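note to self: the first set is below, dont mix up w the second
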Amino acid sequence: MIDQTLAVVGGTGQLGAALAWRLARAGHNVVIGSRNAASAQARAAELGHGLTGMANRDAAAAADVVFVTVPFAAQADTLREIAPVLAGKLVVDTTVPLVPPKVMRVQLPPEGSAAERARGVLGEGIRLVSGFHNVAAHKLAQDVALDCDILVFGDSKDDRAAIVELAGRIGLRGVHGGALANSAAAEAMTSLLIFINKFYAVDGAGIRVTGNLLA
């Protein structure tokens, strides 16, 4: 994957910018996407490491792997915008169905998860995995070790494996989470982690899977 181009759609937001920075710093060719190309270019210049910026659809068109890092409210419209250029690409949806103001309450959509909503918008022909739901964006944006696992979901083991490996390249531990339908568990966990952060005054709680994961 080191020779492939990665796009981070919604890359001017907190999670998107942090993920783009981590990926670029690890040696990947990364394009930041935004609704406004000028905003994407400005954010890319700020982050450095060879990042470039384009409008969302152009960034997706230029990439082999497309990360979608937009808020839940913008997920469906963003996916519809980039869908025509996604054939043959691996799409990584990071969307968490947070519904303000009650973000500490689990509120999964009628489809069962944001990942299933993404599948409904994109159709069955798109290679789709989900992940990066439970990592604190502000910590991901820092040059620090992160004690947090990344659960990766998808119906293709090979596609999951590609993102599990990529997580390792940027200082995280990727863990296979099974079928895309299982994404609901990690998406729901985000609201629990937000509650834990507030209740215990924790600076970005994450999750860690115990046991021997060498399989």
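second set (the one i keep forgetting abt)
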Amino acid sequence: MFKTATRYIKHLLTARHTWGFGIHSPYMYKFAQYVVYEKNSYYIFERIEHFRKLLVHSDKKIAVTDFGTGVSSARNVSDIAIRAIKPARYAQLLYRIVNYAKATTILELGTSLGITTAYLASVARQSRCVTMEGCPEIANIAGENLRQLGLDNVTIVKGNIDENLHAVLETFESIDFIFIDANHRYDAVMNYFNQCLNKINANTIMVVDDIHWSDGMQQAWKEIQQHAAVTSTMDLFHSGIVFFNPDLNLKHYKLIF
């Protein structure tokens, strides 16, 4: 916790603060202004947040499997909703990214209870959204939430993501938007990143969650930034946004979000 707080203070001291000030790339400036710092709400936001409230106040318990340890334990759905689901402002940022990118193929690693998935899939009902979740019981709740929201453009793949990702990627010709929010360990994140590279196109945008959560995650983020396929990045502290467009100048930005 202390390390994370120290990292955040350092981020605040070195990041750009408002509306893309100092960003010279026209594309990245527009992205900062109209995606990162956009404040307008969309009609679907209120509906999705209603389901978040239901989950936060749920008294249901489920068996949660940790694929890192192989241990299954009972957990309250409300606890998962509070601790694991992305806060509304972050989930809504993902919605804006998908909308701005006009993404029609979407891959999410780490479904959790389906709230973030709902934001990703709601942008365009004709889009194809595949989301992967290790724990079957969590995936079942996510599936019910998505069903009630009428999002029939989502496919949930249950089971160990490390084992299933290759087969899922084979079902795509290319992927416009990728959200990595599963196993928060260096080896796993780099494995996800490297596998997904086989399906990117020039306009693909990837978001990697919790890039400063641990030393391993910081190392993964650094290596992603330095990868030859990456042409620009934005570090928002809680997550990193990765661009592959060859027309962008190789530059890495830190923003306050």
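remember for set 2: The chain has a mean pLDDT of 92.
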